[in-house]
């Protein structure tokens, strides 16, 4: 295991999230100053050299109905009403880079999903076998399957840029600085302060979205209405599906017991009792 | 821009993008900066984050700016003057205006002559026959020296202040509600926030754009906003001002360098009756109206002579009026604005057209008229980086025949079209002038592809060829071309730095000047645009500077690029202090008088002139800003609410005068107007973040972000018409129609106007019959109706009907 | 019963179907085990690498379930569990230690074989249903995917567990049983010992 990785899918080593320290990086999205300009979308598409997809009209301002294997950064336009007044909640949606990533947990291919020491969760297409388990393991529905390459893709948090000291492309492009990038603990503090300001300005439910169910995320949101994250298109309490946890935990031990116990038991049975008799005695040939 | 120049003296954003971060209150109205100026909008967000500024958005649609605002007020397209008049009334009636500022820095104290009157929507002097005002009765009362009489107490019944107070007393919250369609409570809540900036320690700004300029009463509308900012004491203040966000990256530069009716630097174009240079200078050098008026336009002679020297060089001498005869001189009432150009094309009175950086078929009102007009030309030259609908107008019948049943087939069009491939912005160096009046030098990122030429190469080739033809063959007006200097080092491809140096100007010693104060009227100085003097000095190209120091902490960034005039960041900054020079807000003083000189920003004033030496507004003869304007507009001296030319309702203030009586309405056979019976809904056009005018539909990235034309339909209207989200609808007006998918939304609501529910339909522009993505041209719908002062079409607020077709 | 002293245990069609099921099962199980545990991912290399294993494993499953369906139609009637079988199953621990006293006499299939048949049939149905969901995750609803990600390995564990027992019984534990499934015949005395009721029926 490379030393700048703290977790690698289907590989012995540190468990995901076991070792995230304060050097972990994060992205802060202040939705109260996001204007839905899509500069982050354009920058993401450009930097990652994605092909152009002209999505069908879905009756909203959204560029695409959902993230796709070649569209990793999508601003969701949520038109709603809050306290009787129209509200248009825009939230940039992309990989959350969970501290405890469900995708990595559920991935069966060694090295196909890695968590870097700085916390970035990245997919390694060369190792990906295209099983799609990560799509189920992710409670945010972020990884998307490419039917052409038969592999799964998502936001890399521009690990290629970050590794040479640049900020991710979306951050670079944001005109209002509603996107910021830096040390996670510092950003959490900034986010809390911003939320406090919003509460003082009359948004009593303002808060920070950093869901505990996945050990916290390295993409943090400031929401004016943190009591209803679903209104922003964010899951209220994201958890790695219990079926994944059960499968990767107790079931694995049960299965191993069955397999090993079955083979070993059969062998020991043979040693102790030997085979059944091969044939009936001669006189039994005619039966009764 | 015509409006701001008349009010304050200069036609530009008063403050600048970076300065919005200093605001306490930001009124966004007639603009949608979050969508259309997202980069500049960062400073609004900084004001919000760092100063906890309040943002109020007033717009027909709950748009992306509204989404991050503290308050949103819906408004009927075209009723903005009523809303702003209501704000004026709110401030005046509730004593929220900045009294000392108003008395010191505006013409509120001026006494108006007895000839002024206003009744039933018309001011005195209206001539219904010519549809113009005789303005002679509106002037100030003058004393024996020719100066206006003033009443410092502003109590005189004919003081501008009292006339204004009376005029706007009709704009009560209920009247605003009845006209605009918001509730009186919504209005009052917004008014309280906005008018809170009348206090000395608070500053409020207004951000507007094409939502104000594209009305048949747009200049009056912007003047109303300027008046509001004046009575609240917000002009000249950091965090204040009235900030026009320009519709293109270099539109400010384009107007700075002239238009059909202006020479560079807003020198008026000579008219036929101004036979000599002296006639021209006499008419364009106003007399001061107060003894302390600096009256800067009295320097017209220096600016004009220096310009003529730049253009005609050695052919410009005192003896020949510095080549004044070479300039074209339209008659006094001639008009060559958009409306006239295409009216003439339509009627067959125009031979040819050169279209550079313009797409009139897409951008002009009443597209069918544009198509027919171009089909009547003998020739059309289009220089563009894409094939535009203008260059391909002859394909319209074939490519979009469903919208143009009357368009001629290509075989029936005789117009010879030349499409010259031109470089795009990234393939050229030179300056662009942004809304903040910053000249910013840019470098070419790459060479133009294929056969594309840079603009200046195309113009040089045309110029040299035409000059040669005139030299060989002669012809009418040949001297204008033959006398012109063209002494660039490479005449076929002028270096833009060289051009910039000439625009800046040089003195008698041949050295670059650093201020227009150095200009002379004797022909010893040369200057292509007096406003830009100082932009390219002996110290080099000021526009290429990238200094990021901000010693004042006010975001002035004096070392970044170069700001006209004279690198002044905040216009009228003298008004940020009282008559004695004490700043209204010591925390936010752009300039301070230290006893002998002004420090801080470049003062909009004499640098060493004592605070009481001059009025704070040096470009107008009054020396103070004009709340009341006499000779500037086609309309009256105080703005009045008029309905759009096509409106579903009567004017509640005066039903007999509905729309702007002075508006310019084209009435050719193809210019029909619709009635509310046939077209009961209001159509309004706008731009989206995802696209840039009609260009980016040719480009992959933006096309991916918004591939489809759509029609925004209020939920209640959609229910009435059985339109579901995503249904295909037809929207049609008296001019034409568009088809597209409906976006049914709660972000536009039915408005209660005069007791009726009025619906508006939202129509984003950006699509056409060519491009990576295509769609209908929305201007199929808009009318050939124009503001009489600026010539801008009324794209915001015209009548349409809508139905579901699939 | 053949005249040469051989009793036909399984005819050719039954044997072919059985071995198709067996081979497909083996392939699916081994490639499946590669994805089951990182410790067994080397199995994927044996079968052409992870991507190939992921791509072909579902097809192995399709062949397995299709052949099993044929087998099901052939044997379902014979596999019905009756009162004797229930008694046998209750006393199966005696069979395991070769104490056949009190065990009802098995017919063509003993109750253990029948139980295996039903276990494999049920597991196959679950494997197929959950397998299709896992095969095409991009077009399946999340609830189904979350359920399948657990059901598929659970069914596989049961199925593989049963097969381990089956292989042991069919090879080492019951001598010459394998010949019945390969060559198709057993001796009369073998039949008389292991499936006396069936032997009596075919002797009539």
Q: How big is the Rg of chain C?
A: 19 Å
Beta-strand proportion of chain B = 15-25%
CATH superfamily of the domain at 2-249 in chain B: Dimethylsulfoxide Reductase, domain 2
CATH topology annotation of the domain at 2-249 in chain B? Dimethylsulfoxide Reductase, domain 2
Report on this structure:
Chain A folds into 2 domains: 5-236, Alpha-Beta Plaits (2-Layer Sandwich); 241-274. Helix content of chain A is 26%, strand content 19%. Chain A has helices at 39-47, 102-106, 133-137, 159-162, 169-173, 184-200, 242-248, 250-273, and strands spanning 5-8, 25-30, 74-82, 85-93, 113-116, 121-123, 144-146, 151-153, 179-183, 207-209, 219-223. By secondary structure, chain B is of the alpha/beta class. Among the domains of chain B are: 2-249, Dimethylsulfoxide Reductase, domain 2; 664-804, Barwin-like endoglucanases. In chain B, helix 5 (80-93) runs parallel beside helix 11, helix 8 (173-180) packs across helix 9 and helix 15 (338-347) crosses helix 17 (367-375). Chain B is globular and about 75 Å long. Chain C has 204 residues and is mainly α. Chain C has one domain: Fumarate Reductase Cytochrome B subunit, CATH 1.20.950. In chain C, 72% of the residues lie in helices and 2% in strands. Chain C has 10 helices and 2 strands; from the N terminus they run βααααααααβαα. Chain C has helices spanning 12-36, 42-46, 50-75, 83-90, 92-96, 111-135, 142-173, 177-182, 188-194, 196-203; strands at 7-8, 185-186. A two-stranded antiparallel sheet of chain C has the order 1-2. In chain C, helix 1 (12-36) runs antiparallel to helix 3 (50-75) and helix 6 packs antiparallel against helix 7 (142-173). The chains are: A alpha+beta (288), B alpha/beta (806), C mainly alpha (204). At the A-C interface, helix 3, helix 7 and helix 8 of A face helix 1, helix 3, helix 7, helix 9 and helix 10 of C.
